Amino acid sequence: MIFKSRAELLLTISNLKIIGSGAHGTCYYDLNSNLVYKIFNEFLYDDIIEECTYEKDKIMRFSNIKTKTFVFPSDVIYVNNYI
Fold it and tell me: pLDDT digit string (tens) for 34-51?
């Protein structure tokens, strides 16, 4: 999923249900698509996006695991070309 700006991301997640938060971020549930989105805390603060150094390979390393008790990533979220 690609967002052009932090404002666009915030608008999107404002319509989702918060299902949990932790030290690294917050998970949101989209009732329409049945998908869960994890937004890392850094993306919710002003002027910090440029400092984020997440790597797609590290986020996706467990994406092949299928289980009914945990949701693993199926893709990454980009904001201004940052993961």
Answer: 989 998 887 777 655 556
